[in-house]
Amino acid sequence: MSIVFDAQKIPETRRGFKLSDIPSAWFVVMGLFLLFFIWRMWPMAQFPVSAFNYLVPFEDKRNIASKVENPCDIKPTCVVVYLAPWCPASRAMIEQIPSFREFSKGSDRPGILVIVGAGKKEDSAQMALRVGGPIFIDPDRQFEKTTKVSHYPYFIVIDPKKRIAARGHDVYYWLRNEMRSH
Fold this sequence. Notes:
With 182 residues, the protein is α/β, with parallel strands linked by helices. It has 7 helices and 6 strands, in the order αβαβααβαβαββα. Helix content is 37%, strand content 16%.
């Protein structure tokens, strides 16, 4: 008995990769993941300027001439320092605030906005007195929630286009190195 091969009955082998090899559900899942990632990360880059509306200027009653101005309105670049009165690291940061403010007096240097929040109103007021100088209080923690403050002390750099350029502890190290280099 002889075996006869019919060339038309032999399946043709493919070489290379075709998009039809991947199930279409995979594209849908990856597309949804990409959209979710963009949706979650986009707000991190945009600074919610309305967050400043939640802040209350702390005016020292002992100093009649204590007019509080927002440094982020005066200077194009601004560093926000968010402190919590109950946090030991924030209390230790109080000693460095005057040197940050002294450094920011140059025209090409960023402004320093100090905010005390994430605690009881009385504790925030006491900490504001200890910090001194122009300071804002976040009484209802709305600034903290809007800007997604995750730890204390928390640093945010706001660029001239009112976008968040950097956030977290890296800003502190950057600011400290800038102070040393000038």
